[in-house]
Amino acid sequence: MTKLNKPTTIKEIARKLKISPSTVSRALNDHPSIGLVTTMRVKKMAEELNYEPNQTAIFFKQRKTFTIGVVLPTLSEPFFSSAISAIEAVAEDRKYTVLLGQSLDDANRENQIITTFKKHRVDGILMSLGKNTTDLSFVDILASSQIPIVFFDCVPESAAVNRVYCNLASGMEEAIEAFVSRGHKNIALINGPETLLAATERTSSFREALRKQGYEYNEKYVVHTDLTEEGNHIAMEQLCVLPERPSAIVSFNDYVTLDVIRYARSKGIGVGQDMHFISFANYPLWKYMENPPLASIEQYPDEQGRKAAEILFDILDNSDKIGLQEIVFPSKLVFK
Amino acid sequence: MTKLNKPTTIKEIARKLKISPSTVSRALNDHPSIGLVTTMRVKKMAEELNYEPNQTAIFFKQRKTFTIGVVLPTLSEPFFSSAISAIEAVAEDRKYTVLLGQSLDDANRENQIITTFKKHRVDGILMSLGKNTTDLSFVDILASSQIPIVFFDCVPESAAVNRVYCNLASGMEEAIEAFVSRGHKNIALINGPETLLAATERTSSFREALRKQGYEYNEKYVVHTDLTEEGNHIAMEQLCVLPERPSAIVSFNDYVTLDVIRYARSKGIGVGQDMHFISFANYPLWKYMENPPLASIEQYPDEQGRKAAEILFDILDNSDKIGLQEIVFPSKLVFK
DNA sequence: TTGTATGCGTTATCAG
DNA sequence: CTGATAACGCATACAA
Q1: Taking 90 as the threshold, does the pLDDT of residue A285 lie above it?
Q2: A126 three-class SS
C-alpha cells in the first residue's frame, strides 16, 4: 500500500525543526551563510519527509522553466529523430527538459505549437522549418517576449536569426564529381518544390558543380517533385522520356530516391547499371538494400542538433554577450 | 524594431481600467457574474496591451501543468515515432503539451527521466519500457505522488498497472499458418533476449501456434539474439548449420530480419526462395526492398499510442471513477 | 549565522 | 455584479 503524501513543503521542514523557512530554503540550496550543522539537520529532515521542491513554484518565482521547445516537421524521418536525440542529450546535460512539437509541414500548426510553447514559458526554442512556411512573424513575437530561437537544418533565408545548417554545395560538388569521374555524360537533378529554399540551393549548386566540371547546364535535366510518391514517379517519368535519358541522377533526398529506384525497377531499368543515383540525407538503411544508390550525402543531423542546442544554451546562459550565431556544416558524400 | 515588452499582467489591466484585478481575472475567464460591458472593456484592453496569461503562475496555483511526459526507448524506431505522433495529436486536442524522454533502453535513464518529469510536475506519464528494465519501483513512487502512468507496447508483467499492448499470439498464429499452408516443414524462431517478457511471449505463442497446426515443437529451432547486428548474425548462423536447415523463419522484429536477410544474401541463400521470413513490427519500408519478407506483423503503434493517451486523459479528467485499464490489441499479419 | 517581510501572477473565498 | 484579501511554495533583500 502506498501512502498518498501531500507533498512536503519548506514550511513543514521549518516547523518541525523550529527554524524559519528562509533558513531551510537557503540550507537546501547550500547557501554559504548557513551553518554546517543547520544545513545537515535540514537536509536530513528533508530526506526523512521525502521533500521535493515544487518546481512549478520555482519556475514561477525564477521566471525560468528549464524547458526548451523543439519544433520540427516530423519524427518519422530518421534525420529528425537523430537530431532530437542529440538535442535531448545536450538538454539533459544542462538539466533542461524538452518539449516536443511536430509541425507536419503545416504552417498553422507551427504557429500553434510556438504559441503553446510561449504560454508554457519555455526558455528557448529550437526549430526546423516545415516545407510550406513563408510567414516568419513568430520570430518577432518571440523576440519581443525575449524567447531565443535557434533554427537548424531547414532554416529561414534571412540571416537575421540564429542558424545551423548544412552547406549543400560541398556534397553536390562531390556528387557531380563522382558521376563525372565514372564517365556519366547526362546528369539529372530531381529537385523538390521550387518554393523551397533547400530546392533553389540545390539547383544553383548543381549548376555550379557542373560548371566546375566543364559540363553544360541543361534545364531539361532538372525536374521537380512535390515529394509525394506520385510526384516522385512523375518526375522520374519526365526524365525517362527524354531523348537522351540521363544515366545519373541526383535527387532531393533519399526518400525521393527510394521511390525513384522502385519505379526504375518496375520499368526494368538496371539500378546501379543503366542508371545511378545519389541523394541527400544518408538514410541509415541503404545497407540493407540489394541495389542501393551509388552514394548519399550526409547532412549530420546529430551535429546540427547538438550545435543548435549548444548555441541556444549559450544564449540562455549569457544572453547579452552572444551575438547572432551562424554555423554551417559541409555536407559530405558517402559511398554505399 | 521589436519592443521588449515585459509581459503585461492582470494587475496592469486592472490599474488602467481602474477596476480590481479579480474582476479582470473573472472577465478574462468569462465568469458569468461579470457584466457584459466590463468583460468587453477588459478584453479589449487585454488585447491592446497584448496580455498573455502567465502559465507558470497558473500552473503553480492550479497545481496542474497540462503537461504529460512520454518515456520511450528510442525515437529512431519508426514504431515509437509513430506512437508519439499519435500521442501528440491526442495531447494537442486536449490542450496538453508533451515532454519527451528517450531511455535508450537504459534503466537508469528511465529513472532519471521519470524523476525529472516528476519534478516538473507533469500531470501524467505514458511509458514504454526499455529492454533491460526490471525494477519498477518508480511505479509506486509515482502512485504516492498521484501521478498516473499508462504503459504501452512494452508493458510490465504485473497487471496492477494501466496497460495497452498487442497480443502477439494472434499474429504469430497467422504467421505459422501462412508458412504451413505454403508447405514449410521446418519453421524456426529467432527470438530476443530471454529476459524480455516480449520474448517469452513469442516463444510460448510460437509453440502454441505450431501445436494448433499439428506441428511438433523442436527447441533447436528456437535461437536467441541480443538484438545487435552481430547477435542477429550469430543467431542466423546457428540455424544455418542445423542438419535440416529451416526454410521459414519468424523473427523477433523487422530489424532483426533486416540483418538476417542481409546475412542470408551474403551467403547466397535465396530470400523468398530458399528461405522465407516473417517478423514483428510491419516496418514501413519493406515496400522498397527487392526481396522483402513474406509478411510482417502489424502492432499498431498509432492505435496503441492514441489509446494509451486517451486512457491517461480519462484518468486525469476523472481520476476517482476510473479503475485499472487494460487494452489488448490483436496483432495482424500483413503480406508484403 | 539566522529570521522577517515581501512579492512573483493568478484565482478563490468572502464580503459588500 | 464587483472589490478586498488571502493563498499557492519558494527565494531574497533587508534586518538583526
Answers
A1: no
A2: strand
CA B277/CA B264 separation, integer angstroms: 11
Which residue is nearest nucleotide D7, judged by alpha carbon to C1' distance? B61
pLDDT at residue A1 greater than cutoff 50? no
Chain A positions touching B7 (Cβ under 8 A) are 145
Kindly report the number of other CB atoms within 10 A of residue A15's CB atom.
13
What is the mean predicted confidence (pLDDT) over A115-122? 92
The residue that leads in pLDDT, A278 or A134, is A278
pLDDT of residue A320: 65
Residue A102 has pLDDT above 60, yes or no: yes
Of B63, B100, B288, the CB nearest to A88: B100
> Which residues of chain A have a CB within 8 Å of the CB of B8?
none
CA trace torsion B238, B244, B250, B254 (10° rounding):
50
Residue A335 CB lies within 7 Å of the nucleic strand C: no
Q: Specify burial of residue A181 (Cβ count, 10 A radius: 0-12, 13-18, 19+).
A: exposed
Residue B158: what pLDDT?
Answer: 86
pLDDT, position A318: 81
**A93, A87 contact by CB (below 8 A):** no
Domain boundaries B167-298, CATH class: alpha beta
- The mean pLDDT value for A161-189 works out to 97
Q: Within chain B, which residues score under 50 in pLDDT?
A: 1-3
Do B65-164+301-329 and B167-298 share a fold?
yes
For A120, B53, B107, the CA distances from A144, given in Å and listed in that order, are: 16, 15, 41
Fold that domain B65-164+301-329 belongs to in CATH: Rossmann fold (3.40.50)
> Do A56 and B63 make contact, defined as CB atoms within 8 angstroms?
yes
Strand D closer than 7 Å to the CB of A9?
yes
Q: Are A17 and A46 in contact (CB under 8 A)?
A: no
Note whether B101 contacts A: Cβ–Cβ < 8 A: yes
Tell me the C-alpha distance between B189 and B99, whole Å. Answer: 37
Measure the CA–CA gap between B189 and B60, rounded to whole angstroms.
53
pLDDT at A175: 98
Closest alpha carbon to B69 in B105, B108, B102, B104: B102
Nearest residue of B to residue A122, measured between CA atoms: B56
Domain ranges of chain A: 10-53, 65-164+301-329, 167-298
Q: What is the residue-averaged pLDDT of chain A?
A: 94
Of all residues in chain A, the one with the smallest CA distance to B63 is A56
Q: State the DSSP H helix or E strand holding residue B259, giving kind and residue range, or none if neither.
A: helix B254-266
Interface of A with B in 260-279 (CB under 8 A): 261-262, 265
Show Cβ contacts of residue A205 under 8 Å, excluding neighbours closer than 6 positions.
Answer: A168, A169, A172, A173
Task: Give the C-alpha separation, B19 to B14, whole Å.
Answer: 5
Cβ-based contacts (< 7 Å) between A 24-63 and strand D: 25-26, 28-29, 53-54, 57-58, 60-62
